Amino acid sequence: MASNSREEVLSCALDLVRAGEVVSFDSVARRSGLSKPGLMYHFRTKKAMMLALVDHVAAGWLEEMATRLSSAPETTTLRERVGVYVDACVTREPDPADIVMLADPRLREELTIRWADRISSWFVGIADLDATERGYLTAARLLADGAWFAGATGVNIPAPDERAVIVAAANELLSKVEA
Predict the structure, then answer these.
(1) Taking a C-beta distance cutoff of 8 angstroms, is the pair 78, 179 a contact?
(2) Where are the domains of the chain?
(3) What's the CA gap between 110 and 53, in Å, rounded?
(4) Torsions phi, psi of 91, nearest 5?
(5) Once rounded to an integer, what is the mean pLDDT over residues 95-104?
(6) So what's the pLDDT on residue 118?
(7) What is the mean pLDDT of residues 161-166?
(8) What letter does residue 107 receive in the DSSP assignment?
(9) pLDDT (tens digit, 9 = 90+) per residue, 30-76?
(10) What does the mean pLDDT of the chain come to?
(11) Which stretches of the chain are DSSP H helices?
(12) pTM of the model
């Protein structure tokens, strides 16, 4: 049966990313059961499809993190948002689709810029901090990013007991921030 909604097409494309397969109009059309023209109804170009994949994954991340907050993201502190980011990156189930921005070498620069743009909404206000507080928040975020990337690539995935130490180290850094 053909997958005819945009969401179903994105899901099929992400399945290809998870399987380490090439994401192309042909492969996504095959996986979704659509013809190439049917796929082009949703995405006029491969670039549009890949950008939509990045948007889809980033939106999922932002939504998941928002559910972990005590209130709406715009009403929480930057320190709390970074703490939730750390927790999400370190404790959630690894998903190879999380690194969709690296799935197409020819579009990598545009896709990584798009990812950074989408995820940066979680870190609003960090540029306004002094270098020390910005440095602590960035260090905690980079600890989380490392654990997240390890999980998404399947390389050097931290063991469960190590994850607890990573979260504790990040929280120690965050405790030095007032923001």
Answers:
(1) yes
(2) 1-44, 48-174
(3) 12
(4) -105, -20
(5) 94
(6) 96
(7) 94
(8) T
(9) 999 999 999 999 999 999 999 999 999 999 999 999 999 999 999 99
(10) 94
(11) 6-18, 25-32, 36-42, 46-68, 78-91, 108-119, 131-153, 160-174
(12) 0.91
User: Which architecture characterizes domain 1-44 according to CATH?
Assistant: Orthogonal Bundle (1.10)
- Amino acid at position 166, single letter: I
CA distance 65 to 63: 5
- Which three-class secondary structure state does DSSP give residue 106? coil
Which structure tokens are listed for 63?
Answer: 């939504």
> And the tokens for 52?
């939509």
How many angstroms separate the CA atoms of 46 and 52, rounded? 10
Residues near 104 by beta carbon (within 8 Å), at least 6 away in sequence = 23, 46, 50, 111
Phi-psi region of 20 (alpha: psi -120 to 50; beta: other; left: phi over 0): left
* CATH code assigned to 48-174: 1.10.357.10
From its phi and psi, is residue 154 left (phi > 0), alpha (psi between -120 and 50) or beta? Answer: left
Give yes or no for residue 1 having a pLDDT over 50: no
